[in-house]
Amino acid sequence: MQIQIESQPFASINTDALVTYVFDKDDRIEGAVADLDKQTGGKIAPLAKSGELNGKPFEMVLLHYPQGLAARRLLLIGAGKSDKFTHAELRRLAGASLRYLKSRGVKKFVWLAREKENNAASLQTVAEGLVAADFESDTYRSKKENTKNIDSVSLAGFQGNDLAAALERGKLLGDSQNWARTLINEPSNKLTPRILAERAEAMGKEAGLAVDILDEKRIEELKMGALLGVAQGSVEPPRVIVLTYTPAIVKAGAPVLALVGKAVTFDTGGISIKPADGMEKMKYDMGGGATMLGAIRAIASLKPAIKVIAVVPATENMPGGRAQKPGDVQVAMSGKTIEIINTDAEGRLILADGIAYAKKLGATHLIDAATLTGAIMIALANVHVGAFGTPREYLDRFLDSAKSAGEKMWPMPIDDEYQEMIKSNIADIRNTGSGKGGGAITAAWFIKEFAEDTPWIHLDIAGTAWNDDNKPWLAKGPTGIAIRSIVDFATKLS
After folding, report:
1. Where do the DSSP E strands lie in 358-437?
2. Set 25, 38, 107, 274: catalytic member
3. At what angle do helices 483-493 and 392-405 cross, to 10 degrees?
4. Number of neighbouring beta carbons within 10 Å of residue 39
5. pLDDT at 145
6. Is residue 454 exposed (0-12), middle (13-18) or buried (19+ Cβ within 10 Å)?
7. Which of 145, 185, 313, 435 could be bridged to 354 by S-S, CB 3.0 to 4.6 A?
8. pLDDT digits over 228-283, tens only?
9. Is residue 297 among the annotated active site residues?
10. CA distances from 268 to 5, 176, 226, 316 (A)
11. How confident is the model at residue 87 (pLDDT cuts 50, 70, 90)?
């Protein structure tokens, strides 16, 4: 799909469809919509008066062969309340327009900017939404239900000198999000740890990143006992994927940011086996790893002035004859000993060794992402990412980036009282909390034990990494959540 900037007056653009949005308020016919109404000889105002055009979120009103326009269709999308309208809503509207028109056989259309959202930042947002919306999750269907495609989208009505750069950044972020979603969508027989490493290596070389893939021998030499404990039940060997972006000039004292992502390519729960219902979705348990790979893919092109390292421990969690058992004790790379209470609490184990290795490589700042706990879904459903971090100032800076990127994240507590819940009688720590509640928090505290005093952010994306249903703006399946926030944060940290 091609996306380009259009400079022609909207009325004269010859295209399959012209698209803009309408707010839910008494005076809906204003600005660009008023211009459209005038150009079409007053065809829009009566729709608003009759109630057919209300401006409710994602309401679609499609006019065919509108008088006064060269476009063969005019699509008006409801945008909701204008006082609550942000770039997050703008991104969704752009995506919804593409999916709506795509399903109707439209090949090309023009997005017409509104008067308050006609700058470079808004153009980038629209491009992100369009690219993400064009992703489909039906990879392995032999007969596709929908073979329709959008060939091109033109962006009209935008103003400013940096529009071209904004367009390229928006396309890059959307494309990196889709690249990660493609990985997350793969079935586990098509994406073992070794295959994931091969695909990450190919991407890294193409992006100009330094690549290092640790096989099981090197993992053992590094004494990554927490990772090896999870991996030992599977015939598939583990891998640790390390991709490094280094700027042309490395300033003395500059931060080194490590992105550590959980990549359990399939999670049965191990000996503490999961229920059969819904287990097929556990192919997405490598979503944190895919997130970090997608983020560093974009970072490689944007070239911030700091070094960024992605560390992705990859394994399966299987209930084989050699699998670790509840009650076992593992020794992590850092030397900490871990009592295994539940083998389904495996993500935090592999993150422990991933974080230790990132620090060994020189990381001064950490972000980890993982589809970690069911507890975060109980707390926040599928609306917000659970965001933990210390010191609080570091977390707040990241949350500012999340807000800029239009991704909903909620700060979670990391009080010292929760640390008591992961103390073990036989080892240094246990891999689940001793209480009945706070599972997402005790999981975060477990990871913090290995981050120690290094500035650290933990993103629990278990509730937000997968859509169970189609959204107007996004296909059912993987979402690619947190990539935009991480990239924004990395560029600002520099």
Report:
1. 365-370, 385-390, 409-411, 429-430
2. 274
3. 120
4. 18
5. 66
6. middle
7. 313
8. 999 999 999 999 999 999 999 988 899 999 999 999 999 999 999 999 999 999 99
9. no
10. 48, 28, 17, 8
11. very high
**Whole-number Å distance between alpha carbons of 229 and 463:** 26
- Considering the segment(s) 2-161 as one domain, its CATH architecture is 3-Layer(aba) Sandwich (3.40)
Burial class (CB in 10 A: 0-12, 13-18, 19+), 107: middle
Question: Within the chain, which residue ranges are assigned CATH 3.40.630.10?
Answer: 188-493
In this prediction, residue 28 has a pLDDT band, given cuts at 50, 70 and 90, of confident
What pLDDT does residue 26 have? 74
- Residue 147: what pLDDT? 75
What residues does CATH 3.40.220.10 cover in the chain? 2-161
Going by DSSP bridges, is the β-strand pair 108-112/73-78 parallel, antiparallel, or unpaired? unpaired
- Decide if 125 contacts 94 (C-beta within 8 A): yes
Q: What is the mean pLDDT of residues 145-157?
A: 90
Catalytic residue among 181, 239, 307, 348: 348
* CA 11 vs CA 14, 32, 73: distances in Å: 8, 11, 12
476 belongs to the catalytic site: no
- Considering the four listed CATH numbers 3.40.630.10, 1.10.150.20, 3.40.50.720, 3.30.565.40, the one that applies to the domain covering 188-493 is 3.40.630.10
* Strand-pair category, 307-317 with 256-261: parallel
Confirm whether pTM is higher than 0.90. Answer: yes
